[in-house]
Design brief:
homodimer, 338 residues, 60s Ribosomal Protein L30, Chain: A, 2 domains, 7-stranded mixed beta sheet, 14 strands, 31% helix, 25% strand
Chain lengths: 338, 338
């Protein structure tokens, strides 16, 4: 019998277990270097004594326009946020466009205008770029890659090894809005209340947090794979357990309703304007106070704690008192969400 | 009458006139900032007193494997070379993959291995990345974006404003090999002699050139749009004329033969391992001597001079003594060449 040829599956792009394994076994093992092996939201290094962060993401969201944003806004905010999660102040972005022959130029203009507005909002400049055009059918309208450079804030020391038992886990707001907004638009669902993507730049918030609370040990934006996958990665990297309180998890009732109807799990849904913060309990009030001052995090709350038990695992304390293990996302929940 | 809706054409990705106008009118005008407006191969700026270069390119070459390289090698060399053209020593690259569902993983591995080898050859590290998967038909197998960061060499002052009448134009070797190699593979042409892409990292050569000959005023790699388009951009930016000697232009006889057969013009064909150097005539021997020591530039030669006449234009002195104006590439010669 021949070996069955292994093929790329949609799940390899989910941000969950399959993505993780593909990247580890193929990219990280080939490009072998300590910066990449960190598997953080970006790489951190020094050039000429300046501490920098560097990150990239490609955006293939479908549809290109959705409630609360479009592919252009997403492409800027996503990369700005990844730099912020490295403890960096974002400065410069690149923009690489892959356009499909036949794309209306008016639509490109609209997307570029969204990028301009988001860059202005985040205080970054798009300074270099590239435009490729492929024949009809060889790309779905437009894909955008952005890469970004930022300067690590002197106060920042964001690393999983600083996550310790006793620290609390704070999330900046409602979970799953982005995924449900995109999904509803894609499938033309009529929902009782319109759900709007949370897509937003978080660098202003993060800069204030890190300046005022250097005790913050870890930051991460729960995008593809959702909160559960992000926390699993951190639990594994830090060698700690994480226990979430189900009753504390912020999910809008309308998002919960859609999830129940369609069988989605909000903890695995992508967010594009949320941050998870780890900090000693004594600083949690200070963190929340700062968060309440920013619109992007006005509904922040403590959702769990770091434990010295069950290292590498994430557990959910359910409202009925049980304890449920939350694994990384396996397979694919919603393709092309960002 | 309604306005006809303007659509993206393949020619908008050619690297020629249409690309130039699209980028200028849509991207540069929206993202308005002086770094982007330079329209160099990359942006140059300082962070914390360190002078950096930053660049990006997406790669959509078809087919993915061709004589002399593949999309992975191209994605590393292209970005390394763009940094070198900024007068920078390349340090770090990002890699963003967009994969089609169903792509054989063995093929991805092969491409990633090419990237590893090319990065090692160029002395750079791939330190951050992203992987997206889209459903069958939404991308043509694999597209790769790379962005890169380098440190500007202290001796380097690469800018069109230093290009002055009397300087000579040197090209590092044969023109058009990459485009013809890809095109032949794409269309299954059987050529009398196999033509191999020139895809190669140039940063070693450039670093030596800039260290030994700081008088070098301008560097550019004539990729999409070819030598003629590159020189038109420089002539316009510098406000000078450029006169090429047709008899000096290095084109392999087998490339010239394919071009004649199919109606291509070698001066508009993409190169992926060539550099054009501008320097005062007194330093040209020194530049050539260094070039001859590197395999990538062992057939370098002087191909023309900078003139104070016909500012902004490029002319070709033909072998029969005439003078022919060379415009930028208009429309599309060979789509998806890189």
């Amino acid at each position: 019998m021949h070996n069955q040829e292994e093929l790329i599956l949609l799940g390899h792009g989910s941000g969950g277990r399959l993505s993780h394994d593909l990247i580890k076994n193929i990219m990280v093992s080939a490009f072998a270097n300590p910066l990449l092996a960190e598997l953080h939201d970006g790489a951190r290094f020094s050039i000429g004594g300046t501490k920098l962060a560097f990150t990239t993401d490609s955006y293939v969201v479908k549809p290109r326009f959705f409630p609360g944003g479009d592919i252009g806004k997403l492409a800027v905010c996503g990369t700005v946020n990844d730099l912020a999660m490295c403890g960096a102040r974002p400065f410069y972005l690149s923009a690489g466009f892959i356009l499909e022959e036949g794309l209306p130029i008016a639509e490109l203009k609209k997307i570029v205008e969204s990028m301009r507005a988001a860059a202005q909002d985040a205080g970054v400049a798009i300074v270099t770029g590239d435009t490729k055009v492929v024949e009809r059918g060889a790309v779905d309208g437009i894909y955008i890659n952005t890469a970004g450079i930022g300067a690590i804030l002197p106060q920042a020391d964001i690393t999983a090894s600083r996550v310790k038992p006793g620290q609390v886990v704070i999330v900046s707001g409602y979970l799953g809005d982005h995924a449900i907004a995109v999904m509803s638009e894609r499938h033309g669902l009529t929902l009782p209340a319109q759900i709007i993507s949370d897509c937003a730049p978080l660098n202003g918030l993060i800069q204030e947090l890190l300046t005022e609370v250097p005790a913050i040990s870890m930051l991460r934006d729960p995008t593809r794979g959702g909160l559960a996958t992000t926390l699993n990665e951190i639990a594994a990297d830090a060698g700690v357990g994480i226990v979430l309180e189900e009753s504390s998890l912020p999910v809008r009732p309308e998002v919960a309703a859609v999830c129940e109807l369609l069988g989605f799990e909000p903890l695995y849904l992508a967010n594009e304007g949320k941050v998870v913060v780890f900090v000693e309990r004594e600083y949690s009030e200070k963190v929340l106070k700062i968060m309440y001052r920013h619109q992007v995090s006005s509904t922040a709350r403590i959702i769990g704690t770091v434990s010295d038990k069950a290292a590498g695992m994430v557990a959910l304390k359910t409202t009925v008192g049980g304890l449920r293990l939350l694994d990384m996302l396996s397979g694919e929940q919603l393709p092309r969400i960002c």
